[in-house]
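$ fold --in a.seq
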Amino acid sequence: MKIKSLLTAAILLSVSYITPIYAQSAPNAENGAFVAVESNIDPMDSVEVSLLTCSPHEEIYSLYGHAAIRWHQGDTDLVFNWGMFSFSKPYFALRFVFGLTDYELAAYPFERFWPYYQQWGSSITEQVLNLTNDEKRTLQRLLGENLQEENRVYRYNFFYNNCSTKPRDVIEKSIDGQVVYEERSDYQPTFREMVRECNRNHLWSKFGNDMLLGVKADLATTREEQEFLPMNLMTDFAHAQIYKDGEYRPLIKEQRLLVAPGVQVIEQDFFLTPTEIAVLLLIISVCIALYEWKSSRVVKWWDVALMTVQGLVGIVLTVMIFSQHPTTSLNLNLLLFNPLALVFIPAVIKGKRNLWTKLLLVMLILYGLGGILQSYSEGMWIVALCLLIRCKK
């Protein structure tokens, strides 16, 4: 699926789409999905539980990678995937924007999981968890509870409750002891910096994300917050220890590459970048300003065009204030793109532009000062200069 429009490109999708294939039996002791034949040997001896980390590929919805849990015991080889969703559900994009999207957990054969990532050129890294048999039993119970009809659907949140944080949380709950992570003092990115890195090859997607993310996205993140990205979780798990009764043991017993990275094709975005569009607008504004200076006329249609774009984008940003996404509630882009522009269009058409000019100048000054707190989208300083040129009587 190709997402080219600004609104859809701005939607922060962090998991890969796979058609849900549910396991025929839920993973709990009652229905025997994981129960081995009775013997003197603990059936959990043969169980291997792993965290699977899939590297990103170049579809918009998979730029952030993916994570899942693998339960392998003899012929039973299941993947527990919290990243199941469907674009066909009513108002999916709108609900995602407002933070009202529901995702769900599905369990299905591992053989149905890995070929999808292989065909897209993504790698799959498996980290075998160093769990005791009792911890495996606890994890078995938790997976079964999560897979029940009333529990498997959950309210998805891009940064705080997604396909990476859900496996982490259920693994931590299963451990009898404390998981001690190695703090990464040299790695303290903001949410915006991490999202930008994932979208580095998709400038319009990065632009859209930057437009919707507000001041809170520029705050330093904690180790736990950084684990919304599966690749960060994989790194943290690799260096984590389990502490109990004065003793430590590594969280990961073995790490192996299940699927090697393949060739990925980076498809061309729109033929002009956001910066090139901004420069084009500036050139037009300068040319119109020179024409107005020489002819002593005002080109009202250009003001109306700019104000229309300001107002329409401003409506989207205003709506995001009410979204459940915590990083969109305070967005200084509203100073540059504000719905009030639509209100002043009739006055500008009538030649009464003084009040709008003063208001626009104040918003541009505040926008410039706001750059101390918020990092703006590519090309936005050029757009601000373009609007500043129009601040004349």
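$ fold --in b.seq
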Amino acid sequence: MSENVFEPLRLPGVDGPLAVVDIETTGGSVTRDRITEIGIVEVDAQGVREWSTLINPQMPIPRSIQGLTGISDEMVAEAPLFAQVAKEIVQRLEGKTFIAHNVRFDYGFIRNAFADLGFTLSLDLLCTVKLSRALYPEHKRHGLEAIIQRFGIAADSRHRALADARATYQFLCLAAQDRPAEAVMAAVQVQTRRPSLPPGLDPAILDQLPGGPGVYYFYGENNSLLYVGKSVDIRKRVLSHFTGDRVSAKAMNLCQQIRDIQAAPTTGELSALLLESQEIKQKQPLFNRRLRRLSSLYTLQLEEDEHGVLRPVVVDAREASRSRRMYGLFPSKKKARELLLGVGKTAGLCDHVVVTPAALGNACMSRQLKRCKGLCTGDWSVLHHNTALMDALAEQALKAWPYPGPVVLLERSGEKDSAPYTAFVLDNWCLLHTQKGVGEPDWDELGTTGDEPAVLDRDIYRYLVKVMMKPGKGIRILPLPDSLTPFP
């Protein structure tokens, strides 16, 4: 163990002492790997103190990690266990703002190590990667090596805990001198705003939330479901509920009732969107918008009569003809007819076509009121009326299904084929089947979607149109089941 003392830094935006921390580990998994070294630069009214120690991880250090850090199995064989230095670490961190370069990594390992001892660590955090991005947006790289080179920081032992903690502290000092105090304070305060947590919520829950895409659930007393939400970063989104000014009494009321938070990670944003929609419809949380569980949706289609007049017909969306355009998705036939009434008035359409189907030849009510342009009396041609009707409904038109049949939309959480995936079997904007796994999908199982009728959902349709018209990173669209060659 070692300790040195230097002059302190006053960091704008942080009231109280600081602990600049760096650790070395056996790998990148916070649950599987262990700490091999910890270095702390303490900053308080008494000055700046440096302290470090090797830690016996009680597991072999991979050769690649040994080559990177220079820490070998022999070096840590006689080092103390984490439990033997835990008390001293707590004393050095307690009451201080925990600062690290990529703070979630260092804090996650240390907090997990304390959790194994039955102790919950809860500190205010500051990430110098985020601080660098905020203060130096003109630079693309914000890793510690890039910062060391940019500022000319002396670092004699890279990838050793105390040396990296010292370099991080020197970056803080240089940034505080290089940038106006107001800018530093603003960048710091964006990160260090303390969440205003409800009295019945354990703060430790927030640290356990994942940082990737997925769905989160707020629960109240007696495990009652209050709210379901989704995000590409669950933890960041949940924290946003408790930080900053809340804009409505409803939002404040929700936050004060929360007693527990749970999360369901997904492979990507689309999975999160679809899961959120499904969960809200099925579970009807108290604070979500009330989505009716609709057994049927209705749409409008145009049928040509013996005179060539296009007449709108309200049909069940499941029974709609694929050969004709669908206009709108409505929760009831009444809502569909209300839309027809509205467009009929604005476009000068005939009541005998859009209100009550009837033969032409006699003036309709709208014609008598001088709203109908005269299809019923022969003053307007069939061609003009058909064109006006299609123009009036154009905004409601659903996108045509762009494939000849069912497809698989494959979403992966990473770029490699071995990454976790979610596969969605889709046809005519309907979700037929979902499969989750790692590596290669089970194509035989995906080809057997069961006998469940396909149901067109307004929210799912909206999500799928955006994704399928322009697939993003990590998404592939494949035909089913004959060929697994991607569509052009």
